Amino acid sequence: MEPIKVDSETADKLAYQTKRTERERRRFYAREPQSLGKVLATVMIKNRYASSSSNAALAEVWEKIVGPAHAARTLPVAVRRGKLEVTVAHSAISQELSFDSRRIIAALQQQLPEAKITDVRYRVGTIG
Description:
About 55% of the residues lie in helices and about 15% in strands. The chain has 6 helices and 3 strands. The longest helix is centred in the N-terminal third of the chain and has 23 residues, at about 10-30.
């Protein structure tokens, strides 16, 4: 059987395609499978589900920042995507706290830097 004769342009294209295919194959097989536990741990750390600041510590800091009068009528629920969600007993308390939000956010960032709080969101609801 005789070898097939091809012009130089076709040979160059074929060589390029062969190199590209080989490179993609090496890159694909270079990634090794990871255990499910390792993947879940990475996701939990990345999304801060396993945060070191517990609700008890958050409630304690919240009481120091807003004072005992407002702390009795509010409940810090959780930190989600950098926003502290707080349930308040009445809309007037929500409005009063929102006027002082800059000071509250600055104090929260100072007291709980690992929580990375950038905003506070108030919701009217039942407390306790």
